[in-house]
């Protein structure tokens, strides 16, 4: 049978065109951004996002402990609020649980979720629990707030903006590959790679500093840098040119890539669940400490990487839930 959609993002685009409407006066942004943005007349926008975390898709029990799974699930959901320049306030968690996990797994999963919640002061206020036949699944809804003048969408990048990252990507997928292959690397980056995959920190700590740079567009790295760059480019209708030398400068990640027999650029561009923030700004980065990786310009929406004075197109190569194969587990 022919598939109706070529990718997860083809489905979202179709949904947005055919079904979604923003005629509601309170709805500022909906399908296609990291969060829905609602205006109820106060000085702040309400941000709402939902994230699903499925066993055997987002995690395997042989790789992650229940605590690590809970930590990772909550970090991923809360990262969407940070990507809009917001602050997390409340969380609702709905679980589908097989009978075999009605034991310490649930307690430790909730303990793991408390880690990101405590770091932001957000509160768990409710949810739902149902039984599943085979696999565990969590659906997490986060409510957040942002000042109206500080809201950051994916669609605001302008030609001439610089492109920044809060940190280098690549270690999360490296950690997963190390787990799958029995850690064929014993160097100094091993702990960092495993931690980045098992217990990634979302970058709420960088939001205030980013807002000081008046960002024009922002997104978090959940599916892969290549995918998120393309989302920004198409949402903002700009071309993005990435400098290869700005990305491939970590000798430890390069050694891990060699041990895994994977091109280091593949790790950097396609590693998902990093939860670093990718943003554009016209301001300089002299004291902020962000990683400047490229710039936007007028032209066909898309992404190119410059290496040795040659431009190579960058396709969305990160995780896609509608693809036949995936990278998350």
TrEMBL record:
One Pfam family hit:
AIRS_C
| Miscellaneous section | Reaction mechanism of ThiL seems to utilize a direct, inline transfer of the gamma-phosphate of ATP to TMP rather than a phosphorylated enzyme intermediate.
Residue numbers binding ATP = 110, 127-128, 154, 222
Name used for this protein in its record: Thiamine-monophosphate kinase
Q: What is its EC number?
A: 2.7.4.16
Q: Which residues form the PurM-like C-terminal domain?
A: 158-283
What does this gene product do?
Catalyzes the ATP-dependent phosphorylation of thiamine-monophosphate (TMP) to form thiamine-pyrophosphate (TPP), the active form of vitamin B1.
Matching entries from NCBIfam families are given as: thiL
Q: Where does Mg(2+) 4 bind?
A: 34, 49, 80
């Amino acid at each position: 049978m022919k598939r109706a959609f070529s990718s997860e993002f083809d489905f979202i685009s179709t949904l947005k065109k055919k079904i979604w409407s923003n005629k509601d006066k309170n709805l500022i942004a909906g399908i296609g951004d990291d969060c829905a943005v609602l205006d109820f007349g106060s000085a702040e926008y309400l941000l709402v996002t939902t994230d699903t975390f499925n066993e055997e898709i987002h995690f395997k029990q042989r790789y992650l402990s229940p605590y690590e799974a809970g930590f990772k699930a909550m970090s991923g959901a809360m990262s969407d609020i940070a990507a809009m320049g917001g602050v997390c306030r409340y969380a609702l968690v709905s679980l589908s649980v097989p009978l075999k996990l009605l034991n310490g797994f649930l307690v430790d999963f909730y303990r793991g979720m408390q880690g990101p919640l405590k770091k932001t002061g957000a509160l768990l206020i409710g949810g739902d629990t149902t039984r599943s036949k085979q696999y565990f699944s969590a659906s997490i809804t986060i409510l957040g707030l942002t000042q109206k003048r500080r809201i950051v969408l994916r669609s605001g990048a302008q030609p001439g903006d610089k492109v920044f990252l809060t940190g280098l990507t690549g270690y999360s997928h490296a950690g997963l590959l190390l787990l799958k292959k029995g850690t064929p690397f014993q160097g100094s980056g091993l702990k960092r790679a495993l931690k980045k995959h098992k217990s990634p920190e979302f970058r709420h700590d960088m939001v205030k500093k980013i807002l000081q740079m008046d960002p024009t567009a922002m997104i978090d790295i959940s599916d892969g840098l290549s995918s998120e760059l393309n989302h920004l480019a198409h949402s903002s209708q700009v071309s993005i040119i990435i400098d290869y030398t700005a990305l491939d400068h970590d000798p430890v990640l390069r050694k891990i890539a060699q041990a895994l027999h994977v091109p280091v650029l593949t790790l950097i561009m396609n590693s998902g669940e990093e939860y670093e923030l990718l943003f554009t700004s016209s301001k300089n980065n002299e004291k902020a400490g962000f990683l400047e990786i490229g710039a936007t310009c007028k032209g066909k929406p898309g992404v190119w990487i410059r290496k040795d004075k040659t431009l190579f197109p960058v396709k969305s190569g990160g995780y896609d839930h509608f693809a036949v194969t995936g990278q998350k587990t």
